[in-house]
Amino acid sequence: MAENESQDRSLAGKTALVTGASRGIGLAVAGRLAKLGASVCICGRDPARLERAAADLRRAGGKISAIQADVALAADVRALVERAQRELGPIEILVNNAGIGRFGPIHQFAETDWDAMLDTNLKSVFLVSSAVVPSMIERKRGQIINISSLAGKNAFAGGAIYCASKWGLMGLTSCMAEDLRGFGIRVSVICPGSVATDFSPHTGRDVSKMLQPDDVAHAVETIVTQAPRSMISEIDIRPAVKP
Question: Which of 162, 167, 190, 221 is catalytic?
Fold first, then answer.
């Protein structure tokens, strides 16, 4: 077992849903939650990639459900949550990870680019959270973790629409936390810098010095294993050495 992997089963008996989990950060998070003992539902839009991810997680010993869904579509989200809870039980942990990035000068984008990024990076969090929260309120407990980005705080050339979606996600998360804390539901956000995945190009960077998906998974573990009396609102993650 790798040094940074958990060796306990503190999430045994709990069900987690991780969106955008067929690769990269989402897959690493799903694997970490499964190692902690949770039953994990993963979703994604590419059925072949999703099934490969599920097979890898099952080989590692996880109880996994893989469901194809576009979390930017309300009908898909309703079907996803209903099936996940039918197969694995009430969702107690939700990790909203699904996201896309398109980068370039603002005037070179079309309306379709705006819609795609805002729907996937922001609207999906509203849809999935809204579908999961009622059962969390009923049980008076739950944890929602939104995967944002340092781009949700920092502007950079070529990042206009992506930054807009992540800044919006920061505001949404903060308000969700206030709306739901009285029901025993904790809402947190994780803001990584650039992570070594195929999400965006890393030309000229030393990938070995960049953040890795497991670094984000470790932050998720920190949040879901905190003491019941506390709430970690936000975690920023940067590489120790600039790549």
Answer: 162
